[in-house]
Structures are given as C-alpha cells and as structure tokens.
Amino acid sequence: MGDRDDLSAQEAAELLGISKATLYSYVSRGLIRSEETGAADRTRRYNRADVLALQQRKAVRRNPAQAAAQALDFGAPVLESAITLIDDGRLYYRGREAVELAATHRFEEVACWLWVEDFDAAALFTPEQMPPLPAPSAPDRTQPVDTFQQLLLAAGDADLAAHSPALRAVAQTGVRLLRLLTWCITGEMSAAPIAEQLQRCWSPTQPESEHLLDAALILCADHELNISAFTARCIASAGASPYLAVEGALCALRGYRHGGSTQRVAALFAAAADHPAREVGARLKRGEALPGFGHTLYPDGDPRGRLLIELVSTARAGHPLVELGRELIELAAVSTGQLPNIDFALVLLARALELPSHAPFTLFALGRLAGWIGQIGEQYAEDRLIRPRARYVGRPGFP
Questions:
Q1: If 0-12 CB within 10 Å is exposed, 13-18 middle and 19+ buried, where does residue 316 land?
Q2: Of the residues 159, 222, 302, 343, which is catalytic?
Q3: Backbone angles phi, psi at 290, to 5 degrees
Q4: pTM above 0.70?
Q5: pLDDT at residue 37, rounded to an integer
Q6: Is the N end or the C end of the chain the one with fewer CB atoms within 10 Å?
Q7: Which letter does DSSP use for residue 273 in this model?
Q8: 3-state DSSP call for residue 74?
C-alpha cells in the first residue's frame, strides 16, 4: 500500500472512533487489510479504503434515514455489485480497467466479460442468436434509438427465450438486443462485429474509424449504478424481461442529465463554431454550466473522455472540429477548471468522423446496452424485489 492508501493504527482508530484493540480485532476478522512497513518494530499500516468503507457502514447504522437520503445523490452504495468499480479516478469492469480494455479488446468481448466474466465472444455471439424482426423489415435509420424503443415490446413478446433468468440465457438475450439495435442503425442484420457494421454504415471510406467506434462502445459499456442501470435493475427485480428493463433504462438515458447530455454538447459545438471564446464567455456570464465538462465521480477528469479524445485527436489530427474541441477544452480549463467527460468525447468523435447527428447518443445507448444486460442478469440472480421506503414529510395522518 502506498502512502496515500494507508493509515497508521492511531489514524485508523481515530477515524472509526474505536480503540486500537478493536482495530486489531477488525483486522483479524478480515474487515480491514493491513501490511507490515518493514520497520524493525514491525509496525503495520492499514488500508484507507477499508477503513472509510467501515466508517460509512457505521454511519448508516447510526442514522439510516440520513444515509438513505444521501445515497440517492452520489452517496453511499445502496446495493452490492461485482460488475463495475469506480475508484480513485479509474473505471474497472470486473477488475479490468476500462481504458485498457478499450485499447486491447473488441466490444463483443467486453460485453461477454461484463455478462459472464469471459472474453470468449465467439461462444455467445453466434450466428443463431438473431432477434425477431417485425414486418416489414425496414427501420427508420434517421432515429435508430427511437425505432429500437418502438420495437422492444413486440420483439420481447416474440422472443420466448428472453424470459429465462438464467445467466447464460440473459447473456444470449443481450446478444439479440445488441443486434436488434445495430439493425436499427444499419438496416442490415449481420453477425459481423458491431463496430465493423457501424464503420461500413457511417464511414465506408474510413476503415480506420472502426477502432475508434469499438473504443467508444467499450468506454460507454457500464458505469456502476447510474440512473439508467438502477432503472433496469428495478424493473428486472419485478420479474420483467430484459426487453422491458431495457425499455425503461432507455427512457432514463434520454434525460438531459444522463445520456441526453450529448445533445447539449452538440449544441455547444454548433454555437461555438465561429467564436469559441465568445460562446463560452456568454454561457458563463448567464450562469450556465458548460455541458460535457466535469463529473462528480472524477474530480481529476473522466478517464473515458480522456482516452477517447486522445484517440480521436491522433486519428484526425488537424481536423477543424478536433481543433475546435481542443480550444473548448482549453477555455473550460481556464474558466472553470473542469475537464471534458465522455459526453464531450462522443460528440467530438462524431463531429471528427462526420457521423450522423444522432451518433453520439446512439453510441452511448448501444454501448450502455451491454452494461444494462449485465446489471439485469446480476439482479435476476439476487432474486429479490427492490423496494425502498420513503421518509414521509407531509401532513400527519388523520383517523
């Protein structure tokens, strides 16, 4: 453990409000990890994250109502999950760093990793796993996510295999759902890799864009218990099928505080095209936040946005819209101290590759669909209804 990640016995005991003897008992019970410092007196250091987690659990027990209220706003965890970890400014999918996966794997492999903790995409993304299609089979490709949502109810009714809560069955349903949304985008049903299909549809003369699209999908794949993932889990906990859970999750994703933020970022790009400094200044003078900058969980910058921006800037070096993005990033850093997030990066990608206007949100939805399936499968395995209680603050009851 490094200096930032560990505490002395005195520091740990003071944080927890306990004696050193009690601290040692927590260590022996496996609640707090410790390591010897190597000093002659055999001094030990105690894992800061374990101490803070235990401190949080004690706070919940002391004041559950307050803890529950705080948990709804980037607060204490409200349920357990083994899928995604956000820690110290980094994002991990089942223990593997998302930015590393985006550089080394295909989207389908990462989807399988989220679902069944196995990178073997060939075992799940088989040619047989095709979704039921309506007749006539001609999607409106101008608004593919709209089309996808309109199809979900009928497709779910026709997909009898989607009603099994078994983990592998849920994963196979995930394959069919991903292919259904991809069909809504491209108009072709194919077992080819999804990023390859998007590249052929959106950037047929730019084969190198396939890697960028793959990376974008992977970086969007999951983000712990965000509002759309929580919505999907709540619906799944009621016993609804993945099709219905995804329908609800998409409704949440559309909100401007979630995936719909990409539309606000796109509006910023359009308004700032001629005079970036003037547009940024005007927004700040009106007391408006700059969309696409800052993230509560990443005070030192969103690693997803950082990687995708680096990839796009390298692949499209000198492109006017990449230069516009760079100028907006510099202006935001100077004026607000905030760094770009994944929403900004998706819009930059779409602008630099000259993709359709819906592409930033569509990529977000397509990538996040993989994470929702993982969350749904995990919730089915929990086999319990999510039913929080409200703390009533209205008029008293009358007999």
A1: buried
A2: 343
A3: -90, 115
A4: yes
A5: 80
A6: C
A7: S
A8: coil
CB 221 within 8 A of CB 114: yes
Token pair in block for residue 109? 């492999």
* CB of 84 closer than 8 Å to CB of 223: yes
pLDDT class for 56, splitting at 50, 70, 90?
confident
Q: What is the DSSP string of 152-216?
A: HHHHHHH-GGGG--SHHHHHHHHHHHHHHHHHHHHS----S-HHHHHHHHH-TT-TTHHHHHHHH
pLDDT confidence of residue 3: 43
Amino acid at 304: R
Residue 204's alpha-carbon distances to 247, 284, 354, 355, in angstroms, are 30, 39, 11, 11
Nearest to 261 by CA among 292, 288, 283, 289: 292
Phi and psi at 82, nearest 5°, equal: -110, 15
Residue of 295, 300, 319, 358 marked catalytic:
295
Bridge partners (DSSP) of residue 6 are 47
28 contacts: CB under 8 Å, gap ≥ 6: none
- Nearest alpha-carbon partner for 122 in 106, 103, 109: 109
What domains, with CATH codes, occur in the chain? 3-71 (1.10.1660.10), 79-386 (1.10.580.10)
Residues 142 and 185: beta-carbon distance below 8 Å: no
Is 105 assigned a catalytic role?
Answer: no
Structure tokens at 6: 């560990």
Encoded amino acid at 144, one letter:
P
Distances (CA, A) of 155 to 81, 135, 178, 399: 29, 11, 13, 49
CA–CA distance, 162 with 169 (Å, rounded to integer): 7
Query: Which contacts (CB < 8 Å, 24+ apart) does range 323-330 have?
Result: 324/269, 324/272, 324/273, 324/276, 324/351, 325/269, 325/351, 325/352, 327/276, 327/277, 328/268, 328/269, 328/272, 328/276, 328/280, 328/290
Q: Examine the residue annotation and report whether 319 is marked as an active-site residue of this protein.
A: no
